[in-house]
Amino acid sequence: MKVGVLALQGDVREHVNSLIACGVYPRTIRRIEELDNVDALIIPGGESTTIAQLAEHYQLLEPIKERIAQGMPAYGSCAGMILLADRVLDAIEGQKTFGGLDITVRRNAFGRQVDSFESDIDFLDGENEKVHAVFIRAPWVEETGNEIATLASVIAPDGTTHPVAVRSATLLATSFHPELTGDYRIHRYFIEELARPALISRGVR
Amino acid sequence: MSQETGTGRVKRGMAEMLKGGVIMDVVTAEQAKIAEDAGAVAVMALERVPADIRAQGGVARMSDPDMIEKIQAAVSIPVMAKARIGHFVEARILESLGVDYIDESEVLTPADYENHIDKWDFKVPFVCGATNLGEALRRINEGAAMIRSKGEAGTGDVSNAMQHMRKIGGEIRRLSSMREDELYVAAKEMQAPFELVKEVAANGKLPVVLFTAGGIATPADAALMMRMGADGVFIGSGIFKSGNPAQRAAACVKATTFFDDAKVLAEVSRGLGEAMVGINVADLPAPHRLAERGW
């Protein structure tokens, strides 16, 4: 399985290191021809507006959108979650996404940097040990479509509960940054539970 | 489920998200919007860009909170603001406004000629300037969550930024080649805490993100700094003191991503109009060199 990390802007290095720790040697993707060489894609944390603009200008937006629609497995953290969402609230005018996940995401939902936080959260209904999650000017999921499973939620300061990790058959998104904590379970979950089954069913090893 | 804010990881992590990006100085909400639309990862809200501070002289201070709030309202990307070196009350004010990062900056007139701000004591993260590794590690020891090489702000002359990046990079490479029992003297010589020196020697890099600032005026300058190992760039006067800010801003963003691709760099460097006029650092009399502020 060849996994790419979108490397237009953001914490690319941390995702690369997490994948290596999972035994997958990733490639970084900045150009359309590099995209053709990967079976799955990670969209890092960063600024969603910056990444979207660079993707559009360098003709990656539509091809990535198409690959995702055709079933390419993808995982996005933070800005990556925004870029995988079909609908974005508090976006800038004309902000584009790759889409594919039938969710509505609110940008900077937890507030500004002084509100950024870390917390131990249940992932997969506490099936696993708790995941130590780092939220940085993080988005949350406001609405999910029928095909979307919620893997983790967080209670906001106003008492409302919001999903912060969701998946569909081939796509995974988290509001938080497992790539910053040296905990590779989320990346392993993406590789083993989403990407590998999806690719095996299409005959890719 | 306790939620902990203002932790070291959250502060340093914020800077990790800015990597590969351009942070632009803006003085109005309109400029902030232009920067966001051009793909800036953050803006630095200030009343005068360094070139104007230099031209007009006088004491340069924190910006008016009204002006910072207007910029915060205009954009969705992070908004940074500058406090004077050692002016912890300006920093408290900026923190209360909810700015996303404070730059304890030599571009403003220092408030304390001996001490910097105790940055551990704040929820908001700080970025500080450095001209060498010892200075960078002293700032990190005080709680800085991000470092930028200082360069010489407001000149459009990239030579000092180059010198500071070479110096920091060179000193890191030197530490990496040393025996552990030699690191004690190295720490003493660079006047930096031993634990941080040891960490840098082991990892071959700073424990926080390293950006470059000071004198970057063209896409080629931005790419040069990335080639020197910067994680990203600050562009101060270089954009809004040029002939065509929107286009130059977008060009610098692209150049920072494709810093190693000369074809892309040639493409984005075309037809940008006039760059900021600039001053040669060598022509600046010593008291006007901002990089020498900070200790």
CATH architecture classification name of chain A = 3-Layer(aba) Sandwich
By CATH, the superfamily of chain A comes out as: Class I glutamine amidotransferase (GATase) domain
Quickly name the level 1 CATH class of chain A.
Answer: Alpha Beta
Number of helices of chain B: 13
Distance between the termini of chain B: 42 Å
Relative helix content of chain A: 25-40%
* Percent of residues in beta strands of chain B: 5-15%
Strand order of the largest sheet of chain B: 8-7-6-5-4-3-2-9
User: Largest interface by residue count?
Assistant: A-B, 44 and 40 residues
Q: What is the tally of beta strands of chain B?
A: 9
Structural class designation of chain A: alpha/beta
H/E topology pattern of chain A: EHEHEHHEHEEEEEEEEH
Top keywords for this entry?
heterodimer, A: 205 residues, alpha/beta, Rossmann fold, 7-stranded mixed beta sheet, 3-stranded mixed beta sheet, 6 helices, 12 strands, 27% helix, B: 295 residues, 8-stranded parallel beta sheet, globular
Structure description:
The complex is a heterodimer of chains A (205) and B (295). Chain A has 205 residues and is an alpha/beta fold. Chain A has one domain (3-201): Class I glutamine amidotransferase (GATase) domain (Rossmann fold), CATH 3.40.50.880. Chain A contains six helices and twelve strands. In chain A, the strands form three sheets. Chain A has a seven-stranded mixed sheet. Chain A has a three-stranded mixed sheet with strand order 5-6-9. The longest helix of chain A is centred in the C-terminal third of the chain and has 17 residues, at 185-201. Chain A starts with a strand and ends with a helix. The model of chain A has no long low-confidence stretch (mean pLDDT 95). Chain B is of the alpha/beta class and 295 residues long. Chain B is built from 13 helices and nine strands. Chain B has an eight-stranded parallel sheet with strand order 8-7-6-5-4-3-2-9. The model of chain B has no long low-confidence stretch (mean pLDDT 95). The A-B interface holds A 7-14, 30, 45-47, 49-50, 53-54, 57, 78-79, 90-92, 107-108, 111-121, 134-137, 154-155, 177, 180-181 and B 1-7, 9-10, 13-14, 16-21, 36-42, 75-78, 95, 98-101, 123-125, 253-254, 257-258.
